[in-house]
Amino acid sequence: ATPRDPPQRPVRSARPLAICICGQGRTFMHVAPNLLTATARLRAEDADVFLAIDRARGRSSAYPGKSVPRLAEKPLLDAAARFKPAGLSVVDVSKGLDESLRRCFKLVVTRERKRGEYAFVLRLRTDLAFKAPLPRLSAFPRPTRPRLWFFSDYLSAGTDSSRCGPTKTVPPELLARHGLCADDNIAFMPRAVAPSYFRHWYWKPEC
Fold this sequence. Notes:
Helices cover 28% and strands 23% of the residues. It is α/β, with parallel strands linked by helices. It is globular, with a radius of gyration of 19 Å.
């Protein structure tokens, strides 16, 4: 008999949606049950979940001269485990929103190297609760060109460090070039838009 090569396993295609839940963990353990319910339809068939959480309870600037209170690690990890995340990153100190966005997207890219690229990305906050479950992915908008949808609680072009000021990863010259930042709560986008969105939270005014 002629020897045959072993059958090749088919490459598993990625689910179409990556859900990035990222931010400070201050209320995550309380909000997690709501987020589980809100994302249940998506997680059932459409989505993988990625979590990037900071254990700090608040901004380090809120505790001048003091160590920043941190959340207990085990309860935080227990809450995160209920999502069966495809990627998880937990750090002790918050370095700002732009940093948590990058960490979460890095988890997505790492997963894609093994499973293939996602078609869409949905970004949620760790302290956001919903009144009703999110719909299946088929009910989300389908852009004819790369486009971003987001809901923001403020847009600003200020330099106040508590809002849109420069950080270690967003220097003044970058702020000057972009001029506008959005503290968004929900963002949905095609995968092609994600590298720009998750790089930082500053946008050109025409955006």
